[in-house]
Amino acid sequence: MTVPLLKVDNLRIALAGDGATYNAVENVSFEIGRGEAFGLVGESGCGKSITALAVMGLLRRPLSLGGGRIALDGEEIQDASPAEMRRLRGKRIAMIFQEPMTALNPLSPVGKQIAEMFVLHEGMGWNEAMDRAEEALRQVRVPSPERRIKDYPHQLSGGMRQRVMIAIALACGPDLLVADEPTTALDVTVQAEIIDLMAELCAAKGTAILMISHDLGLVANMCKRVAVMYAGRIVESQAAEAIFATPSHPYTRGLVDSLPRLGERSKRGRQRLREISGVVPSIAAYPAGCRFNPRCPSVTDVCREMVPEATPLPAEGLVRCHHHG
Amino acid sequence: MLLVLGRRLANVIPTLLAVIALVFLLFSVLPGSFISGMNEDGRSTIDPAVMERMRKEMGLDDPLLERFGKYVAATVTGDLGTSFRTREPVTKMLSNRIWPSLKLVLAAMTFAIAVGVTLGFLAALKPGSWIDTASMVGAISGLSLSQFWFGLMLMYLFALKLQWLPSFGYGDGGLRHLILPAVALGVGPMALLARTTRAAVLDVLNADFVRTARSKGMSERRVVEWHVLRNALVLVITIVGLQFGSLMGQAVVVEKLFAWPGVGSLMVDSVFQRDMPTVQGCILMIVLFFLAINTLVDLAYVVIDPRIRYQ
Question: Closest partner residue to B215 among A87, A95, A99, by Cβ?
Answer without folding.
Answer: A95
